[in-house]
Amino acid sequence: MKKVKLVFQDGQTIEGNSFGAYASAAGEVVFNTAMIGYPESLTDPSYKGQIMVMTFPIVGNYGVPSETEMIDEIEAFMESHKIQVTGLVVSYYSDEFSHWNGFQKLGEWLEKQNIPGIYGVDTRAITKKLREEGSTLGKIIAENDLEFYDPNLDNLVDQVSLKEIKRYNEGSEIKIVLIDCGVKNNIIRCFVKRGVELIRVPWNYDYSTLEYDGLFISNGPGDPTLCDVTIENIKKSLTEDKPVFGICLGNQLVGLAAGASTFKLKYGHRSHNQPVVMAGTKRCFITSQNHGFALDDSKLPDGWETYFSNLNDGTCEGIRHKEKPFFTVQFHPEAMGGPVDTEFLFDEFINVIKKYKGELV
Ligand SMILES: NC(=O)CC[C@H](N)C(=O)O
């Protein structure tokens, strides 16, 4: 059994066992308290540049599904075409797996994609550290040492966004432009199964010449303020009346385009049980989340209001325009993995598009 080290920016070093690739990697260390869903989380492009600490004590016991099986031109069981995290930290790694959909061992999959994992470390102590001191930079060290690396200084969206336009359900009556900032596959599935045409465009694409009925802005990695081209394009869309919907990074980008500001949370929200409340109601939803930044809704621009708030820390979980059909959420209604309480938001978006097109009164 090979040993590796997890080294934090403050010098703290924890030794553990290697699994996956025996390699060194540096990034931002974040923790995720979800009990399941490691194949989906590991392939979520929003985790790009991050070393994920899973607090659930046993990881790997249901294996990993096939990463090559495709349905409708997208990976059937993954949230993107590859592992996006930089490294994985778990307490107990189970090399044995049992699941109807299990195809390979988690360690084998990580190794194939050259992603290091470390296990046999106290993930509760690490999580307490991150909660008390905030997210920090870190590295997994095998043989060779590395510099620390802060992914939030790089335009990660450019690295994960697709490079050319791609259409799904071509020819459908309702056409939605999806700005791909690192979109999760389940967002695409949620639209495709509702029968709309999806025009998936790169993060910096000028979509103003396309024919479409609604604009959707996806999730994505890193600091939202670095998505300057997307923010400028959204600004133009907000002067029009076409419906706009954004998820996670998309929520932050619409907020920035409207004139609000973002800030970095101390340790982020990464789990499948984040409670949010819909403004003006007592309706609470349990949501799946993965974000390190948030919109500051203490001073929203004129015309905008808070749509959802987080019941744990009161931070903004979405905004909406008071008159125009624009709304966004910080959590993940497509929930992969996680609870599907808020998937109805896709239907609401399609309904406001129908209203906008005069098909619904
Ligand atoms: N899942 C996301 O879209 C994350 C958005 C942004 N990168 C953040 O960490 O806040």
Task: Report on the architecture of this protein.
The chain has 361 residues and is an alpha/beta fold. The protein has 2 domains: 3-153, Carbamoyl-phosphate synthase small subunit, N-terminal domain (Glucose Oxidase, domain 1), CATH 3.50.30.20; 156-356, Class I glutamine amidotransferase (GATase) domain (Rossmann fold), CATH 3.40.50. The chain has 8 helices and 21 strands. The strands form 4 sheets. Strands 12-14-13-15-16-21-20-19-17-18 form a 10-stranded mixed sheet, sandwiched between helices. α6 (228-237) packs across α7. 50% of the residues are buried. The mean pLDDT is 97. The structure holds glutamine. The site of glutamine has 12 residues, from β18. Residues 46, 219-222, 224, 248-249, 290-293 line the site of glutamine.
Ligands (ions, cofactors included): glutamine
Question: Using DSSP, what is the number of strands?
Answer: 21
Mean pLDDT: 97
Rg result: 20 Å
Tertiary shape: globular
CATH fold node name of the largest domain: Rossmann fold
Strand content: 25-35%
- Roughly how much helix do the residues carry, as a percent range? 10-25%
* Oligomer classification: single chain
| Main beta sheet strand tally, sense and closure | 10 strands, mixed
> Which residues form runs of ≥5 with pLDDT under 50?
none
Please identify, by name, the CATH architecture of the largest domain: 3-Layer(aba) Sandwich
Order of helices and strands: EEEHEEEEEEHEHEHEEHEEHEHEEEEEH
CATH class of the largest domain: Alpha Beta
Any idea what the CATH superfamily of the largest domain is called? Class I glutamine amidotransferase (GATase) domain
Pfam families: CPSase_sm_chain, GATase
Domain Carbamoyl-phosphate synthase small subunit N-terminal: 2-141
Enzyme class: ligase
Region (CPSase): 1-174
